[in-house]
Amino acid sequence: MAVIGNIDPWADQFPQDQILQVIQLVCDSWLTFSMPAERLEIPITQKLCAHLRTNRDRSVQWFRIDYETSVLDAEGEITGRIDLTFTQGFDENVYFSLECKRLRVRSHKRFDTLANKYVTHGMFRYFTGQYAKGLNRGGMLAYVMDGETEAAIEDVTKSIEKNKLALYMASDDTLCVSSLSSREVRETWHQYGSDSRFVIYHIFLPAQSTRN
Known about the structure:
The protein is an alpha+beta fold. The protein has a single domain (16-209), classed as Restriction Endonuclease. The chain is built from four helices and nine strands. It has helices at residues 16-30, 41-55, 115-120, 149-162, and strands at 64-72, 78-87, 95-103, 105-106, 111-112, 137-144, 176-177, 185-190, 198-206. Strand 8 (185-190) and strand 9 (198-206) form a beta hairpin. Helix 1 crosses helix 2. The radius of gyration is 17 Å and the shape is globular. The N and C termini lie far apart (48 Å).
């Protein structure tokens, strides 16, 4: 099997060291990200994708970054659309995905944690055949709109606790500090997939800390 540098272009899983590079790129880029005037998920993610491409260090971050990637099954039917996809190598089915959601959205009339939507319209998609089929890792990217990341983590934890069965989680599993050792990152473990071990990395980004 051919290897270019440290890249195996025919690997059947996205490499763990490059997942760490993805997370570092996202967290570092967020520090210099200018929030768009329209503070909605789509314009934020579009602008962030462009910012990530600009900031990528191609000497160590050996991946392509794409926005709104369609996932096709063997018959060519679209099974899902991934917000941000990171790929390397020759196999289009091997990638690391980030599903993006807003959390803790305030307006002059109401406040919504959106934690349940984060779980049921985000995390669930990894277990319904829409995303990451045959893969063992995926990601969630949360824009915490009021900047209260710890509160957002608590909100999501509560929603995860209510949906453990659908998330293929053991009774004693929960949202925990990530083994990748970043304060912005948590992870969940799921008894799902070919090896009954699927990991979701959760990145919580405080929108209030971004540049105006």
